[in-house]
Design a protein that fits this description.
This is Germin-like protein. The chain folds into 2 domains: 2-174, Sandwich (Jelly Rolls), CATH 2.60.120.10; 187-217, no CATH class. 20% of the residues lie in helices and 27% in strands. It has helices at residues 2-19, 181-186, 194-201, 205-216, and strands at residues 75-80, 94-100, 105-110, 116-122, 124-130, 136-142, 146-149, 154-158, 165-171, 179-180. The chain has a 5-stranded antiparallel sheet, with no helix packed on it. A 5-stranded antiparallel sheet has the order 6-5-8-3-10. The protein binds glyoxylic acid and manganese (II) ion.
Length: 217
């Protein structure tokens, strides 16, 4: 009997943990986000259903390449998430488009709330993620191919070719969140103190200042 109870407990625990590992499930057909309501909930409160329209479920912002303004990185991420498409609220999915100039980089980052899957629209791309035991999993993916970055793991993409590259990304969250390591550590507000960064990377504070200045530019 105790054995059966233990199995039931393990199954329940696995189900609960699994169930919470992604956006909460929906309880109605649609819940188009009403970000102006002023009510704070996990996600957004719903617009009155009589007010919803096709435009709430539509976005053309990733139909064309994004403008690459960061010449150092040479990449541009254009989101297509609940902030752009209010109808995504409670649906647990979103997309993005990433455009790369020749040799462009989408620098190391994580998504705290989603696994990401990319589809290469054009060109080829070196992609990589790093497990929590610091194993690097990497591959070159080409037009029409797909690659997956597991939720919460550090990953990046580098165009190692002299041609532009674009990918479409899909996420199992309406708002996956992105935290870039370099930006988080060196451009936070208020800042992470120089002594902490110098000790973390075993460099002197002068070099910390140099990195901060380079990222702020
Ligand atoms: C790519 O990794 C992205 O998050 O858009
Ligand atoms: Mn990503």
């Amino acid at each position: 009997m105790a054995g059966v109870r233990a199995v039931v407990l393990v199954v329940l625990l696995a189900y609960t943990v699994g169930g919470l590992a992604y956006d909460s499930d929906m309880l109605q057909d649609v819940c188009v986000a009403d970000p102006k309501s002023g009510i704070l909930v996990n996600g957004f409160p719903c617009k009155n259903i009589s007010m919803i329209a096709a435009e709430d479920f539509f976005f053309m912002g990733i139909s064309k390449p994004g403008q690459i303004t960061n010449k150092v990185l040479g990449s541009k991420v254009t989101g297509a998430n609940v902030m752009d498409i209010p109808g995504l609220n409670t649906l647990g999915v979103s997309m993005a488009r990433v455009d790369f100039a020749p040799y462009g980089l989408n620098p190391p980052h994580i998504h705290p709330r989603a696994t990401e899957i990319i589809y290469v629209l054009e060109g080829e791309l070196y992609v990589a993620f790093i497990t929590t035991s610091n194993k690097l999993i990497s591959k070159v993916v080409k037009t029409g191919e797909v690659f997956v970055f597991p939720r919460g793991l550090a990953h990046y993409q580098k165009n190692k070719s002299k041609y532009p590259t674009s990918v479409i990304a899909a996420f199992n969250s309406q708002l996956p969140g992105t935290q870039q390591f370099a930006a988080a550590l060196f451009t936070s507000n208020p800042p992470v103190s120089n002594d902490v960064l110098a000790q973390t990377f075993n460099i002197d504070e002068h070099n910390v200042e140099k990195i901060k200045a380079g990222l702020a530019a």
